[in-house]
Amino acid sequence: MHIEDTSPENNFLHKIGAMPSIKQLSLTGCGLNGTLHTQGFCGLTNLRLLDMSNNNLKGTLPECFYNFTSLENLDLSSNQLSGDVSALKSLTSLVELRLSNNYFKIPSSLEPFFNLSKLKHFHADNNTIYIESEMQPLAPRFQLNLISLSSCGDVGQFPHILFHQHDLRQVYLSNNNFREGFPNWLLNNNANLERLVLAKSSLQGHFELPFLPHTDLSYLDVSENSFYTNLPIDIGEKLPSLSFLNMSKNQFHGSIPSSIGDMNFLEALDLSNNQLSGGLPEHLTMGCFSLTSLALSNNKLQGQMFSSNVNLTKLRKLHLDGNHFSGKIPDSLSNCSFLSTLDLSNNVLSGEIPMWMENMSSLSTLDLSNNELSGDIPRWMGSMSNLEEIVMANNHLEGPFPKEFCHLNDLKLLDLSVNNISGRLPSCFSPLWISQVHLSRNKLEGALTNVFHNSTSLVTLDLSNNHLTGKIPRWIGNLSRLSFLLLNNNHFEGGIPIQLCKLGKLSLIDLSNNNLSGTIPPCLKITALNEISQEYVRYVTDIAQAPSSFSIDEPIEFRVKSMSYSYKGILLTYLSGIDLSCNKLTGPIPPAFSNLKQIESLDLSHNNLSGKIPPQLVGLYRLSYFSVAYNNLSGSTPAWTAQFATFDESSYVGNPLLCGDPLKDCSTSGPSASLLPKASTENGLIDMISFYVTFVVSYVMAILSIACVLYINPYWRQAWFYYVGSISNCCYYFLEDHILPKRLHCGNM
C-alpha cells in the first residue's frame, strides 16, 4: 500500500492496523505528526517494507519494532525522531535501513545492529555518531555494501565498524570531524570499493595510497580537508579506473603528477584551491581524453597554459582561473569545440581574443577577466547565440561596444568594466533576460536612448565612471527588479526622474559627480534586500550562479567617506544607500527620507541644498554614514543622539549658517540668513568680491616688485625665496577653501 504526499484521513493507521496481512506500507510525505507509539501500525507484523520518511514524527522508537522480524526495508528518514536505536536490534531480516535526518544517537560500532546479518545498506546521515567508552569485543555479523554517515558531528575518529567491513562498495563520510589521515586501509580491505566520499571531514597529514592498484574505485572525493603534502606521483597507476577525482580545497603542493594521464576513464578532475605549482603535464592533456570537466583554479601554476598537443575533445567545463599562466590564449584549445564554460580569469594572459572562439557554438559562460588582454572586443561574439555570461573586466580591451551584441538574446550577465571601451552604447542592446550589467570605468559616451529599456530582469546596472551625457532616462523606472543603480561620475544633467520612485526594490543608488539639478524627489524608496522578501533575495543571490556551474561574484563599488569599497555576495543583501553628492541639486532635504529605515549611507554633500535638516532623520538607526557638507543649509543640526552622535563636524562643514552639535552652539552663533536684510546680504557679497580682487592684484604687484629687486641682488634672492614659498602656500590654501569652485573638491574625493 503506497500513499505518498497525501494527508490520510484520521485514524487511518488504526484502521489498517487490523489488516496484519499487509506486507508493504509507504506513507512518505503524508504530514504525519505525533509519535510512532500512537500511529497504530504495531499490529502489522508481516510488513516487509515500511516507509514513513519525510513526515513530522517525533519522540523515540516504540518497542513494538521487536516484532517486525520480517521487515526487509525500513525508512524513517527526514523526521524529528530521537533517542537510541536499540528497538531495531531484532529486525533480523533487515536489508536496508534509512535513518538519515533525525536526532538519533548512534554508537560508532553500530552495536545495536550486530545481529542483523542480512543488512547491506545503512544510511544515518545528519544524526549524532558517538564513540563508546568501551570497545566492543565482538565483530558484527553483517557485511555492508553501502554505508552513509555524513554530517554526524565531532566523531573524532573513523567509526570502528569500518575496520570489520570487507565488502563495501560505497562509503559516504563527508562533513564530519575525524582528525585522521587518509584511510587507505579502506581501499586495502575492500577490493570492490567503487565510491569513497570524504569531503570536509577534517582529514590531515599525508595522503597515502593503497599498497596495490585499486582497479574498482571510480569515484573519490577528499575535497575541503587539510592534507599538506605533494600529490602522490603514482596516483594514476594506483587508481587507474577513476572517473571522478576531487582533491580541491586542501594544501597539496608541488607539481601535478604526470601519471594522472594514465586515468583514461577520468571524466571530472578538480584540483582547485591548493598550492600546486609548475605547468600542466602534456601526458594529462593527451591521456585524459574522456575529461568533460577540468578545474585547476586558484593554484600557483605558471607558464604556457597548454602545449601544442591537447586531446581534450570532450571537455565541456574548463576552469584555469586564479593562476599565473602567461602568454596568449593557446590555439590548442580550439580542439575543445564542445566547451560550455571557459574560465581563464585572474592570470597574466596577453594578446587578443583568438578568432577560433567563434567556433565554440556551445559556449554559454566566458570569463577572461583580470588579465592583460588587448585589442577590440570581437564583433563575432554577437553570433555566439548560446552566450549567457560574458565577463572580461580589468583588461586593456578597447574600441566600440559591438553592435552585434544586440543579437545575444539569452545574455544574463555582462561585465566589461575597467577597460578602454569607447563610443556609444547601441540603442538596440536590450537583452530581455539580462540581470547584471557592469560597464564602469570605460570611455563610453553619448546619451542613454533606448538601451536596456526592455531589460526588465535587470538587478544591477553599473555605468559609473564613463563620459555619458544627456538626461537620466525615464524608462529606468520600468526596471521593476532593479536593486543597484550606479550612474556616478558621468556628465548627466537635468533633474532626477520622478519615475525612479517606481523602483520598489532599489537598494543602492549612486548618482554622484554629475551635473544634475532641480530638487530631490521625496518619493525615492531605498531598502536593504534582506528586508524585501526571502524569495527575491534568493533570486538576487542566485542570479550570478545560474545557469553556469560556478559562481561569478561580481562586486559593486560604492563610495563612503571619500573611499571606494567593493561589495559582493551576501553582503549586497544588507547594503543600502543614496549618494547624490557633487551635483547642482537645489531645494530642501526631503523630510520623507526619515522613512528610509534601512538606509546605511546618505551622502548629499557638495550641492546647493537649502533650508533646515529634517530633525526626523535621527530615526534612521542603521545610518552609518551621513554627509550634507558644502551646501546652503541653515538652522540647527539634528539632535546629537543615536546614530547621529557618531557623525563629526565633517558631516556638516561648508554650511556657515548651520549650528548645534558637533558645530558651534546655536546660542552663540550670529543671525541666520533669513533675519538679514536682502540688500545687506548683497552688499556684503559685493564687498567680499572687491576685497578678493584687490587682494589678488596687490599680491601680484608685490611679487613682481620683489622679483625685480631679487633679480639684481643674488643674496636677497636666496633669502626671500624661502618666505615667498611660505606665503604662496598659505595663499593657495586660502583660495582653495574660499574661492575655487566646489567641483574641484568633488573631483578629489
UniProtKB/TrEMBL annotation:
It is found in: Membrane. Gene3D superfamilies: Ribonuclease Inhibitor (3.80.10.10). The chain crosses the membrane at residues 689-712. Coiled coil: none annotated. Residues 294-492 form the Disease resistance R13L4/SHOC-2-like LRR domain. Keywords: Glycoprotein, Leucine-rich repeat, Membrane, Receptor, Repeat, Signal, Transmembrane, Transmembrane helix. GO terms for biological process: post-embryonic development. InterPro entries: Leu-rich_rpt, Leu-rich_rpt_typical-subtyp, LRR_dom_sf, LRR_R13L4/SHOC2-like, RLP_Defense_Trigger. It is a single-pass type I membrane protein. GO terms for cellular component: membrane. Pfam families: LRR_1, LRR_14, LRR_8. Belongs to the RLP family. PANTHER family: RECEPTOR-LIKE PROTEIN 12, RECEPTOR-LIKE PROTEIN 14. This is Disease resistance R13L4/SHOC-2-like LRR domain-containing protein.
